[in-house]
Amino acid sequence: MDxxxxxxxxxxxxxxxxxxxxxxxxxxxxxxxxxxNAMDRSLEKNKLNFLSEMVLEDMIGDPDNVSNYSxxxxxxxxxxxxxxxxxxxxxxxxxxxxxxxxxxxxEKGSGFKDKKLRCLSGDSxxxxxxxxxxxxxxxxxxxKRKKYLGVIVK
Amino acid sequence: MKNKTLGFxxxxxxxxxxxxxxxxxxxxxxxxxxxxxxASVSQKVAISKSAREALSMIVRDLRNSGYLxxxxxxxxxxxxxxxxxxxxxxxEIESKYFxxxxxxxxxxxxxxxxxxxxxxxxxxxxxxxxxxxxxYLSRDVKINPEGGNTSHPIVEELFVPYxxxxxxxxxDKDGNILGAVCHACGAMERSYxxxxxxxxxxxxxxxxxxxxxxxxxLTVRSPKEVYSKARKTKIQNGESPHGSNITINPGDKYHRxxxxxxxxxxxxxxxxxxxxxxxxxxxxxxxxxx
Lengths: 154, 290
Prior knowledge:
The complex is a heterodimer.
Chain A: H1 11-60, E1 71-73, H2 86-99, E2 104-107, E3 112-114, E4 124-130, E5 133-140, E6 145-152
Antiparallel strand pairs in A: 1-4, 2-3, 4-5, 5-6
Chain B: H1 10-64, H2 72-75, H3 83-86, E1 91-98, E2 104-112, E3 118-127, E4 135-143, E5 155-160, E6 163-171, H4 187-191, E7 197-198, E8 201-202, H5 203-206, E9 213-221, E10 231-237, E11 244-252, E12 256-264, H6 272-278
Antiparallel strand pairs in B: 1-2, 2-3, 3-4, 4-5, 6-9, 7-8, 9-12, 10-11
């Protein structure tokens, strides 16, 4: 036998192979973190479902004033606006609940911090009301994902 | 001849071992990571699923709450002969008494399911038999609770596992909190005048027909620990003094979520007596659903 015939895998080849396998690994890890994120999003969508139900129930409960229930919140920081009328109180309630104000707080650094619903710039919460019908639109994921729900109030 | 006996040199073997070790470590840590994330995701799924199912049912019960069949008086299996006494049991809460932190509420809902029969549904936090601090939300159903012979056994159901807080806030048509909506009034309801008699009727009873909106807060804990570090947690549901304010200290590793839903109780803030006595259809009464 000639020496030249004895072939094996060179170190370079094996390293290249390792790098390719490594890339595969990273892809798998990303897949897993993506699926965890998707899970979190579905949890928040679940909550958003209940919140849209809240908005529509408030409209159903105040059918004569439904024209006052138009609402447009594009910022992620809400603040109560006050007022004695039911629709003003209800809108303040929406603002609070959409932010999950005070629900659960975790100790972080010094003091407790709110655990808020995910809100990105471009997200918005809107209602459209016209002549006895109400509709609520939630835009999440930088406004890319939309959720509509409508109801005939009167 | 010597040239033909070829094997691995020491350095080659060492390099191979090192590369092998690195890949084994990578595989192991990836396995660990997957395992952990699977555990945390499945805990979150469990919370989300049980809360979603429970809240949809609570919402349905609340929408029905206080419904009295027009023929209930006279044919009632509970022996109820007047609207006044029928309307003493429509919806009821007992605040800040239940659960691990003694701040949870109990919610009672009554409605008729046929001209004869009335159903009572109780939502309340109960302790697990083999636990000192874990509570679940139970949904107990009884048909004809005062019916004597026609009464059915209570059907108890473990409704939502591992619930930390269950708050019910009832509001009237102007958005003000009703502090005393009760038949058997608890301490908190009594302090809001639940047993006070105004114009021959107890305030706790007349308030039942004032209920316009019910707000439900449900804080669920993951069955198993999720986080690697313990942390202190605060739970605040609803407005003080009717809501809860719980601090979990020392902290723990559980994941918690609060679910909120608000429902318009269609059968309560409605002048039922007027409509029932005048024989109007329910859509005709001008005060309907205000």
